[in-house]
Structures are given as structure tokens and as C-alpha cells.
Design goal:
By secondary structure, the protein is α/β, with parallel strands linked by helices. 46% of the residues lie in helices and 15% in strands. A five-stranded parallel sheet has the order 2-1-3-4-5, with helices on both faces. Strands 7-6-8-9-10 form a five-stranded parallel sheet, with helices on both faces. Helix 4 links the parallel strand 1 and strand 2.
């Protein structure tokens, strides 16, 4: 089921792109005309990784600083947060968890602009937000989110493109279904071979590829019971470096953009230290171990990168004798306060 749902992402994205265009345009006009002193994201799990991607795009393209809200400040501490001139963005597959719904309601009631990118448009989260934008991923049966994560990234990029009113990004979005279908044909069997016997792993990204590293790390844990940690390529040389020894597996996502050169250099250094590096990079990088697909513009590359990863993750789970559709101790909807 996980593999089937992951492979259906291109069709889900095509459906999303074919709908809600005027709603995004209206939202873009609202965002351009509203002065925000604070911008926040509100999410858990894979949705929080999608928020990290959204935040990076907003900061890089629009110059607004975005922070991730610790939801317990609202749900447990009952802190008197200032909501005026605030943009609050939440992403969720189910829209059910109280610790996501309550902050969006709190900020909206306080006069903030509250946006929900949510798969279940009839959910409490959708009802709490001022703007509820459907992911259109359809019902997701597998516990491990795949198509809903990809559609979350696409909705995030649509929000930024509408806000910025950027023709290049808008055109790049339209080409995504074809790029996602191409991504499913990439052969990452080398990663399955290396990681089937592994006990732990580091997953590395930087800048716009770091949310992909976060999501990949979570999927390794969920679907393969593989102890995985995600690190920025700038952070790994601090404490995490002490863990590197002969044969230590390291997956590095070196997508296009300003951070790519430093990640390629890191891969070479880690190989010199004995790590078993799996460098995921575009086809023009000769030293790559895994080929990363590319989108029409580098800012959309993480969307097709995670598509290629999901196919491998499902295959790895099966190779390790596990069922990726029924991870231990997990359920599809998680409700926390």
C-alpha cells in the first residue's frame, strides 16, 4: 500500500494543480497586502517537515523570518502570545490533532491570518482556519505518509508562488506531475543493498534539502525500524562526527542550489573518514551513488527527490522483512495535546 500510494503522487498533484487556482490567487493577494511582524508554522511529524520546506521558501524568496511554534505554549502553558500581525500556517493530513487545531483557532481568534493546508477539508483544522486549502491526496491507507507529504510540499510551493506572484515558480509547478512520474523510474537499489543489514544511519541535507533529510530519517524509523538521525551538513561536523567510523552509513541529499557544493565536499570528506556514503545528487554529479531527479526549477527539486526516496524506502522495508503499511506501535491518526 505504501508503494502504491507513493507511486500515485503524480496523479494527486495533477488533481491539486487543476483545482483551487482562484483561491490561491486570492490568498496571494491577501498575503501581499498584509504586513506581518511574525510568521509561524504549526505541525507534527511529516507535516512539520513540509512546514520546514514552506518556511525555507518563504524566507529565501520573500524575506520573512518564519519560526516553528512549540504548540504546548498554547495547549498546555496557555501562554498569552501576541497574535496581532501574525501569519500562522498549519499543514496536516488528517486535521484532527488537538495540538494543531487549537493554536490555529487561537491565532485566528486573535486576528492573525490563519492558513491550513489539509487533506481532510471537513476536519476540525480546516474549520478553524481562515483559509483552508485542500491537498487533494485522497484517502491515505498506509500509516506512513507519502502522497500526502508530496502534496503538502506542492501546496506549500503554490502558496509561496501565489504570494510572490512568480511566473517561473508557477510554471515549474505545472510541470511537476511529469517530473514526479519520471522520479519513480530512478534505480536506488544500491541503497537497498547497503541499508538492508544496517542498524543505524545519518541522513544529511542542507538548506532546501534539509526537510527531505528530516522526512527520510522519519521514514527509515517508521518503515524499516532503522535508527536514523537527520542533520544539516553544517552541523554534522560538530558532535555527530564522533559517531562516524568504518562503514557507518550516511545518506546525503545534495539537491541543486547554493548548498550543493558544500554537501559534495562533505561526501568526499566522509568517505575519507571511512563512512559508507550514499550520495544522492543529480545526474551531472559524476561521483553520485544515487541519481536525484530534478524539477523545472531547483526550489522544487525536494518534491521529486522525496518521490524517488519513497520508492526505495518501501523496497527497503520489504528487504528487511517488515510491513511498511503497519509500522509497530503506530496508527494513521495521532492525536496529542
Amino acid at each position: 500500500m505504501m508503494l502504491k500510494e507513493a507511486l500515485s503522487a503524480a496523479d494527486c498533484v495533477a488533481l491539486q494543480l487543476a483545482n483551487d487556482g482562484e483561491q490561491y490567487a486570492e490568498l496571494g493577494r491577501k498575503l501581499r497586502s498584509t504586513p506581518f511582524s511574525t510568521a509561524l508554522t504549526i505541525a507534527r511529524g511529516s507535516s512539520d517537515h513540509a512546514c520546514a520546506y514552506a518556511a525555507y521558501l518563504i524566507m529565501a524568496r520573500l524575506g520573512r523570518v518564519v519560526a516553528s511554534l512549540p504548540m504546548s505554549l498554547v495547549t498546555l502553558n496557555k501562554s498569552p502570545l501576541i497574535t496581532r500581525d501574525t501569519l500562522a500556517i498549519s499543514i496536516s493530513q488528517s486535521g484532527q490533532s488537538p495540538d494543531v487545531v487549537e493554536p490555529i483557532r487561537y491565532f485566528r481568534d486573535g486576528g492573525a491570518t490563519a492558513i491550513a493546508l489539509v487533506n481532510d477539508i471537513d476536519s476540525p483544522l480546516a474549520k478553524a482556519a481562515e483559509y483552508a486549502m485542500p491537498l487533494r491526496a485522497g484517502k491515505e491507507q498506509s500509516v506512513a505518509a507519502t502522497k500526502s507529504f508530496i502534496t503538502s510540499l506542492v501546496a506549500s510551493a503554490r502558496l509561496v508562488a501565489a504570494w510572490q506572484n512568480d511566473p517561473e515558480l508557477l510554471a515549474g509547478l505545472e510541470a511537476l506531475p511529469e517530473s514526479l512520474r519520471a522520479a519513480t523510474t530512478e534505480d536506488w537499489s544500491k541503497a537497498v543493498e547497503v541499508l538492508t543489514p544496517a542498524r543505524n544511519i545519518m541522513v544529511v541535507g542542507r538548506g532546501i534539502s534539509f526537510p527531505v533529510a528530516l522526512e527520510a530519517s522519519l521514514k527509515f524509523k517508521e518503515t524499516s525500524a532503522l535508527q536514523a538521525e537527520a542533520f544539516s551538513g553544517a552541523e554534522i561536523k560538530h558532535g555527530p562526527m564522533a559517531l562516524i567510523d568504518e562503514g557507518y552509513p550516511l545518506v546525503i541529499f545534495a539537491t541543486r542550489g547554493p548548498t550543493q557544493a558544500s554537501l559534495l565536499a562533505l561526501a568526499n570528506e566522509m568517505r575519507g573518514r571511512g563512512a559508507r556514503v550514499l550520495l544522492a545528487a543529480p545526474a551531472d554529479v559524476a561521483e553520485r551513488d544515487l541519481t536525484l531527479p530534478v524539477a523545472a526549477t531547483p526550489d522544487l527539486d525536494p518534491i521529486v527527490a522525496i518521490q524517488a526516496f519513497y520508492k526505495m524506502a518501501a523496497e527497503l522495508s520489504a528487504a528487511r522483512g517488515m510491513d511498511p503499511d503497519q509500522p509497530r506501535h503506530l496508527s494513521k491518526v495521532t492525536k496529542t495535546n
